Amino acid sequence: LVGGSVAIFGALRRLALALPQPAAVRSRPGRVWRWRNLLVSFAHSVLAGLWALFSLWHSPELLSDIQDGYSVSGHLLVCFSSGYFIHDTLDIIFNHQSRSSWEYLVHHAMAISAFVSLIVTGRFLVAAVLLLLVEVSNIFLTVRMLLKMSNVPSPALYEANKFINLVMYFAFRLAPQAYLTWYFLRYVEVQGQGAFLTANLLLLDAMILMYFSRLLRSDFFPSLRKGSAGRDVDGEKFLID
């Protein structure tokens, strides 16, 4: 199932090659790969985000047993997203984007190792589904990056998405992450798989807060965007983030 998912995203990547690109992307070769990569990421976010919502809506009783709750839908979702993370890792490496996308590689390594452990043991699948609610937030975050890259001529569209993105960030990224962190620290034994997943979760907490600070600095406090050396942190590096 994971291998099939890798193949699906490989096909989506080929499809993205055939889609038209905005002039602002075509004029900068360094952005062509990023644009294509974001389109595939957008497809995963839509599919996985809606899938996670459906899984929890269809089987709300899963929330009462985060450690041992099980559903076929949730298991398939974790396999599906594992395939995406593997595909995206290979896409980054084979296109020589490792240096500029190293944070993505760290995140993907964490996600792949954690998800594989869940697939093998069948435990904590509900926690993975809760974490994948983040993909609902990623829909609007990816739209934000696509709009910035394409230099969209409609500021109103960007402004509307900016506030929707902030709300979704709280609802589907920060809230589930905070709840799971509290749950793991309070109820999960810090040994074996529990210790491994708790460590991953705490590292992910730090990454999410770092990304959130960048988002606020970029969209809501632009006067703080320049670092001590005068480099605009909302340039290509932030687009990658």
Automatic annotation (TrEMBL):
GO terms for biological process: membrane assembly; phospholipid homeostasis; plasma membrane organization; regulation of membrane lipid distribution. Pfam families: TRAM_LAG1_CLN8. InterPro entries: TLC-dom (IPR006634), TLCD (IPR050846). SMART domains: TLC. PROSITE patterns: TLC. Keywords: Membrane, Transmembrane, Transmembrane helix. The keyword Cell inner membrane does not apply. It is a multi-pass membrane protein. It comes from the Eukaryota. The keyword Membrane applies. GO terms for cellular component: plasma membrane. It is found in: Membrane. The chain crosses the membrane at residues 38-57, 126-147, 167-185, 197-216. Residues 30-224 form the TLC domain. This is TLCD1 protein.
